[in-house]
Amino acid sequence: MDRTTLAELLDVSVLDRLDRIDDLPTGDLARSAALRKEGFSAEVTAALLTQAQLRTEAVGKLGPYAAEMLFTRDGLAQATRLPVAAHHAQRLLAAGRADGSDAPVRIADLGCGIGVDAFAFAGLGAEVRAVDADEVTAAIAAFNLRHLPGAEVAHGLAEDAEIDGADALWFDPARRRVGRANARGATARIADPDEFSPSLTWVVDRAAKAHAAGVKLGPALDHDLIPASAEAQWVSHDGDVVEVCLYFGAARQRPGRSALVMGERTLLVHEDDVPATDEDGIGRLGAYLLEPDGAIVRAGLVTALTGPLQARRLNPSIAYLTTDVAPTGPAAAGVTAYEIVDVLPAKIPSLRKELIARGIGSVVIKKRGADIVPDQVRRQLKLPKGERATLVFTRLGDKHVVLLTQPFTAPGTATES
């Protein structure tokens, strides 16, 4: 979206039509024709349809607030999920004012995108001064924060922003390459942290000097890039690994790596929870297979679960655990559990024969440490119709195995029908 189209979109009558877009017939062609008949230009019509689509897509991240916001496709892709943004806000607000007073915490959001984190900061009582390098994105952020008097947005570079007087700094460096879009219109991700905007080196330098700071990054961040002075927290939400956040200064709770699992249940795991050794029993299969949450895997903290879940690793280099007892307690929030029904042969003809004999005709295929392509295996099996099961291709010690499993649901837990 360019500046001219955004200016037209921000017209009161156009925004009103966007809010009433569901009054129109369903389908883009029908809606486009109706909007053109009402007198909207082709450009504004396209913008209205795009915003309606993005609002629908944003509900999963932002809930009902999405219906009152504007977006760019890249902005929505990089936007924080609202519950995670609230967690960021709680961390920075808990760090308090640099002067120790009880006045509102002042946060400089340096790279605010469409404004979701700033929305959470201001919504929880902070005074927010936000900037974004893209003029259209900054204008959209200002629109999204219009009901929060404690928030201001300006167009500008993070490197040029005035941060004197800020109690906390928040960074979300741009990690997409402007001008290189895929078929859906989203731009390509940047892999090199020094090519982020602003660069990770610059961000860490500023964050380390602040009273409190947070830096939101992609979860694939190399552990070697984590400064010794920071806490690196990987976060998952409803099973999706969404970020790693570096916290500095008063926002840092414990140095080192941690993983936060957010969803119906919450679990926080820290590298201090990792046992000095977990060699006992590696490669001995139990009654249950445990698949750790992705945030725990990314943080390198799989073995932190072995003690609480009385579990052991299948293989020293594979992020699966096994246990003889059903997973219970707080740590169970950090795994997806499967009952192990049997160990099956790995060769396709023998595997197919076993599955057919058991009446299994549909399989979910999971893998770790196995050189297979699940879709290819599924085609090779050519199973007739039958019951559904989960196959796990992995290694037990040095041996390649196929585990026949079924999802485990703890007693008293509701299951989907």
Fill in the CATH topology of the largest domain: Rossmann fold
What is the strand arrangement across the widest sheet? 3-2-1-4-7-9-8-10-11
Mean pLDDT: 93
Backbone CA Rg: 25 Å
Q: What spatial form do the alpha-carbon principal axes imply?
A: globular
Query: Largest sheet, if any?
Result: 9 strands, mixed
The CATH homology group name of the largest domain: Vaccinia Virus protein VP39
Indicate the proportion of strand residues.
Answer: 25-35%
Structural class of the secondary elements? alpha/beta
User: Which spans of ≥5 residues are poorly predicted at pLDDT below 50?
Assistant: none
| Total separate domains | 3
Kindly report the oligomeric state of this protein.
single chain
Order of helices and strands: HHHHHHEHEHEEEEHEEEEEEHEEEHEHEE
Distance between the termini: 43 Å
How many H/I helical runs? 12
Give the CATH class of the largest domain: Alpha Beta
Question: What is the count of β-strands?
Answer: 18
Helix content: 25-40%
Quickly give the CATH architecture of the largest domain. Answer: 3-Layer(aba) Sandwich
Short description:
It holds the Pfam family Thump_like. The chain is α/β, with parallel strands linked by helices.
